[in-house]
Amino acid sequence: MTKFITDRRFWLIPILAFSLLTLISTYWNLENLNRMAEQLAYERAQSMFKLVEMTRLWNARHGGVYVPVTDESPSNPYLEVPDKDITTTTGRRLTKLNPAYMTRQIADIAREFGNIHFHITSLNPINPNNIPDQWESFALSLLEINTKEVLEYRERDDEAVYRYMGPLITKKSCMKCHEKQGYVVGDIRGGISITLPAAPILDAQSATRDQIIVIHLILFILINGMTLFYLNKMRQQWLSLSDAQNKAREPSSI
Predict the structure, then answer these.
(1) What whole-number distance in Å separates Cα of residue 42 and Cα of residue 38?
(2) C-alpha distances in Å from residue 203, one per residue of 44, 164, 197, 198, 213
(3) Is residue 102 in some structural domain?
């Protein structure tokens, strides 16, 4: 113990120990921050997916819904049902929106108002507009081997995004349109891809990251400063005591 207090070289031991603990704590907190950011993106994307999924199920249980034929809602050439287009008694033309057609229209509105992109897609699409891109093909292949959901952070077109894919599971109400493709109830026939801008999450994450680093830096300086201060004070006291003891041992000159 005496050697530790009097020899300043040994003071590196607590300084290095506190430095290591500070680095470990900083790394753990930053990793936890990354997990929280990813969890936030996941919860946002999943909530959107669930909302669209419930809306689609409502549509399917009603056998589709009719809307007036317009430039924005023309008759769907990929929907093969006998009552696809009807005319009211007043001569108004209506066309049926099935869940897929409705989903594409909702996606257009989401893109317009929230810079959020979602895309109904499948490895076996009826509509060529539903052909998956490279990432979607990869995500769909994961869903087909029992992966529940897929979430990934990506850089795309100079923009950071989170991409999510949730499965579309065939239900009884879906068979009217998809039975001809060979699907049975319970099959995964595709998915909905949701793309969220990562900037809002990353900006908040960056501010918190800076706080974590600054707090750990301040703690590092304070703890090591206090350690050196008290070690130096103990050393001075020890040397003073040792000097006093040595003087007490010296023979008296009287």
Answers:
(1) 6
(2) 16, 20, 11, 8, 16
(3) no
Q: In whole angstroms, what is the distance from residue 140 CA to residue 124 CA?
A: 11
Domain count, the chain: 1
DSSP secondary structure of 53-94: HHHHHHHHHTT-EEEE--SSS---TT---TTSEEE-TTS-EE
Cα–Cα distance between 116 and 137 in angstroms, integer?
A: 20
112-156: pLDDT as tens digits = 877 788 899 988 888 888 899 999 999 999 998 888 899 999 887
Q: Kindly give, in sequence order, each residue whose CB lies less than 8 Å from that of residue 208, ignoring residues fewer than 6 positions away.
A: 33
pTM above 0.70, yes or no: yes
Residue span of the structural domain in which 137 resides: 14-63+117-236
Pairing of strands 117-121, 93-97: unpaired
State whether residue 159 is helix, strand or coil. Answer: strand
